[in-house]
Amino acid sequence: MRTCLKALLLAGLACLLTAALAKKSFNFMDALSVSTVHYNRGSEEKNAFKPPENNPLRGMDIVIPGDGSPTEMKIKFTLKETVCPKTEDYKKAECVYKENGLMKKCSSTVTVVKKRPSEANSVEVTCEHVGPEERKELEKPKNPWWPFRR
């Protein structure tokens, strides 16, 4: 009986340890999140920006080298100005989009190393202001066949 209990206890501990050591993979939405934080920290804008709720990612690409070099995730996305100062958490419910606020068209490269597959190693973001005509185009719903149609 004691041996059986010890075996069950060891099996349970092994499962817990395996679950604790399992690492989540970094995905494109994670790349969008860290890119948004990076933009807000480094921008000269007074208000925080956050991705639109519909269609925030406009393009995605990933380079996974076979030689152990960092994985590169490249994304294109849009950000919209919120009513919150950038010192506040832009994700909270009160940080709604500012009426007639600015919109930015951005691209980002996020690298992830194998040793830490659940976090960004480096982030580079560039954004540019979107004018009224381009804004109309960016706010249109995406083609349902994207990314399969070119």
Automatic annotation (TrEMBL):
Pfam families: Cathelicidins (PF00666). Keywords: Disulfide bond, Secreted, Signal. Residues 1-22 form the signal peptide. It comes from Huso huso (Beluga). InterPro entries: Cathelicidin-like, Cystatin_sf. It is found in: Secreted. This is Cathelicidin-2-like. The keyword Transferase does not apply. Belongs to the cathelicidin family. The keyword RNA-binding does not apply.
